[in-house]
Each structure stands twice: as C-alpha cells, then as structure tokens.
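Propose amino acids for all 279 sites.
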C-alpha cells in the first residue's frame, strides 16, 4: 500500500513507519508544549549595506532550545510545524516577539532598524492575516515601516488574493521581500504581480558564484533586474571576500551572511547596534 504524503514523498507502510510516525507525533506534541515552556528564542542576523558596511536590517530566525535534545535548528521542525498547521500559532509568536524586541530597542535609543520576519504559506492562507499583522503592530506599538515580511516562491498562491493582501500590507506601511529568490517556480510571476520591496538572492546561487559561470550570470542578472524595477537586492549566504567582491562589482545593494555575522542572540546584536550608534 502506498500513501501520498505531502508534495513528493511516498511512504510505504513498514514496521519502521510506526516508529517514524510516533517520533513525529512526539515532536509535534513537544513543539506545542515548547511554546508554553518558553523554549523558543529569536536570533537575529544583521543585513549590511554594501557601500557603508552599516547594519540596515536584520532577519529574525527562530531557535528551539529543547530541554533534552539541545538546540534544534528550524530546518528540523518548521516543515513539521507547517504540515501540522502549528506554524500559524508559532509564526504569530515570532511576529510579535520580533516587533516587541524592535520597539524595545528603539525605545532604548538604539538606531531604528527594520526587522524581517519569515512568513509561512500557511499563515498567508489565513483569511485574517491582515488583521493579525495590524493587531500585532498595534499591541506592540511598532511603526509598520520597521516590519518586513519575507515570502517565498514555493508558496503556491491564489494570485488575485495574494496581490490584494500584499497591497493592503504595503498600504499599511509594511514591506514585502521575496526570500530564496530564484529557487521557486514563479519568481518572475511574483515580481510582475506583487508589490515587492526587496529581492533576496538565494544562497545556492551565491555559494559558487566565483567558480560557476552560470551562478555568476544568474546573480548579476537578478541584480540588474531588481535595479531596473527599482527593487533593492540583497544577497544571502555571503561567506567570503571573493563573493563579496563580485557582489560589490555588480552593485548588489546589501548582503547577509556569515562573512559579516551569523544569526546571533539578542545581547550580541544589541552590542552591534550600540557600536553603530557611536561610530
Ligand atoms: P531563510 O529565511 O532563507 O534564512 C536564512 C538561513 O540561512 C538561516 O538559516 C541562516 O542561518 C542561514 N545563513 C545565513 N547566512 C549564511 C551563510 O553565510 N552561510 C550559510 N551556510 N547559511 C547562512 P536558519 O536560521 O537555520 O533557518 C533556515 C530556514 O528556516 C529559514 O531560511 C526559513 O525558511 C526557516 N525559518 C527560520 N525561522 C523561521 C520563522 O520564524 N518562521 C518561518 N516560517 N520560517 C523560519
Ligand atoms: Mg528568510
Ligand atoms: Mg533565504
Ligand atoms: Mg527560506
């Protein structure tokens, strides 16, 4: 017997399957409890302006500090959270925490810098997404221009509804970026139909751009396309000076990657923001 599971994985019923589903059930249960037990934490990765090397943004990235298993990276639980629908609750928590933190920094006199929050397709499918965002901004007091929502092209969206929702968010003052740009089926479709402020070049194109002429061509074309459309372009996964130099020569606006900083916990990014205040 074959059972279709999600997009592209077929599970065969075997004795091990009971173990697998039990593990999944356990993880799912733990994931929900973790919210009540305060086991989630947001890390922040700085986004740096190419020419000035100043921090002009930061991406909030969730971490799970599991009491027994240690820190679980999002790649290991976000997909399950998406399948089970728990991401809707978790995503709202992320949004609220990111807004609370950003507001707190601004109130403390640190330089006001927008925060980017990843939005799951499951959140996007919620009819009340607009209201949720509006309500979180109201509760936290964060001005909307300090919030950017990252959407990915793997989201198969109802174009009419999506462009309506995204336009409403834009009207509210919230920015929209396309994450992992170039990896989905509908990159150009998104650009054509949605009000996009920023493109994030996926790190799979950045990794080998010094050695792979295809990657180099794709990256320079994305930058040119963005600029023609008046959209900022940021490169993800920048790890070394060779990649940096290429991106600089091709006038990429911003970079995010280990070269400048990995995602870091609150006290560490606070120190970076402090430094920026005095320099
Ligand atoms: P993403 O949104 O594309 O985030 C960027 C990922 O690339 C992060 O992985 C970051 O740590 C990693 N990265 C940044 N610079 C470099 C680099 O120079 N080299 C390498 N090798 N990696 C780099 P992370 O934190 O493990 O997150 C993975 C993915 O999990 C994210 O990809 C995002 O899709 C998802 N995710 C994380 N937090 C959330 C969240 O709060 N909500 C939702 N829906 N998804 C999230
Ligand atoms: Mg992202
Ligand atoms: Mg990305
Ligand atoms: Mg992603």
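Proposal:
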């Amino acid at each position: 017997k074959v059972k279709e599971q999600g997009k592209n994985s077929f599970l065969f019923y075997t004795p091990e399957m009971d173990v697998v589903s039990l593990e999944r059930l356990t993880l799912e249960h733990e994931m929900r409890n973790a919210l009540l037990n305060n086991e989630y934490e947001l890390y922040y990765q700085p986004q740096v302006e190419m020419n000035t090397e100043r921090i002009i943004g930061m991406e909030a990235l969730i971490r799970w500090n599991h009491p027994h298993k240690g820190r679980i990276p999002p790649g290991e639980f976000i997909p399950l959270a998406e399948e089970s629908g728990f991401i809707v609750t978790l995503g709202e928590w992320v949004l609220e925490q990111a807004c609370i933190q950003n507001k707190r920094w601004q109130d403390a006199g640190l330089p006001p810098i927008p925060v980017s929050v990843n939005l799951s397709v499951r959140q996007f499918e919620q009819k009340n997404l607009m209201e949720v965002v509006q309500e979180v901004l109201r509760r936290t007091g964060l001005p909307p221009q300090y919030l950017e929502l990252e959407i990915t092209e793997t989201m198969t969206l109802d174009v009419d509804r999506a462009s309506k929702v995204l336009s409403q968010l834009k009207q509210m003052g919230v920015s929209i970026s396309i994450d992992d740009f170039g990896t989905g089926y509908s990159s150009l479709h998104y650009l054509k139909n949605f009000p996009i402020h920023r493109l994030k070049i996926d790190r799979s194109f950045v990794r080998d751009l010094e050695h792979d002429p295809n990657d180099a061509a794709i990256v320079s074309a994305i930058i040119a396309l963005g600029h023609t459309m008046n959209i900022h372009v940021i490169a993800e996964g920048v790890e070394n000076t060779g990649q940096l130099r290429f991106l600089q020569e091709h006038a990429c606006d911003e970079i995010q990657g280990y070269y400048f900083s990995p995602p870091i916990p609150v006290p560490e990014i606070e120190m970076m923001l402090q430094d920026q205040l005095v320099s």
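The CA atoms of residues 180 and 202 lie 4 Å apart. The first strand starts at residue 2 and ends at 5.
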